[in-house]
Amino acid sequence: MSKENEDIIFQGKTEHIFKVVIIGDPAVGKTSLLTKYSSKQFQEKYLPTIGTNITKVKMDIENTELNLMMWDIAGQSHFYMLHKPYFNGGNAMMLVFDITRTSTYSNINNWYNTAVKYGLSRVPRILIGNKIDLNNERKITRAHAQHLSDKLNAPYFETSAKTGENVNEVFQKIGELLLKSQNIS
Q: Domains in the chain and their CATH numbers?
């Protein structure tokens, strides 16, 4: 989104609109995280995202209203050809993996490289290890995830969409990073 499209002045208050892409392999909990944050609900049954789901999330940070257009992008390989328009104009990214499945962690580099290929190399980003409610099935240690976090220059959070643990914190952090990156105060 261009700078001209980001700010809307309505009744004397400035609103900032940002596009945030949520990416990662299928069934890592991208949709569940977004649903838990936006509606405080969790659905046990897995329903794969078809293409992309867009959810508007409003938040106030430092007396500034943010409207985050959250683009929850399908992780299935047959949707890869659609990625370019989904990534286009992104202002931030959330990279999500499942702490119980090593392949989802290994593929974070591929997701990041795809985002960079489509022009998101300089946007704020967060790395999220989801499903910590399944800690007894954990395959990815915090140390390994922190190493990747350092490599990607992305703060690392561990979450549970099921219990809600750290879900509000990741959305708050992406909002803060966006404000900082845009020099908005």
A: 12-181 (3.40.50.300)
Picking from 29, 55, 59, 27, the residue whose alpha carbon sits closest to that of residue 42 is 29
CA-wise closest residue to 30 among 145, 146, 137, 111: 111
Reported confidence tier of residue 182, pLDDT bands at 50, 70, 90: confident
Q: 63 to each of 23, 43, 111, 183, how far by Cα in Å? A: 29, 33, 33, 14
Q: Does residue 149 carry a pLDDT above 80?
A: yes
Nearest to 55 by CA among 76, 79, 38: 38
Q: Helix (H, G, I), strand (E, B), or coil: what is residue 82?
A: helix
User: By C-alpha distance, which of 167, 174, 96, 171 is closest to 129?
Assistant: 96
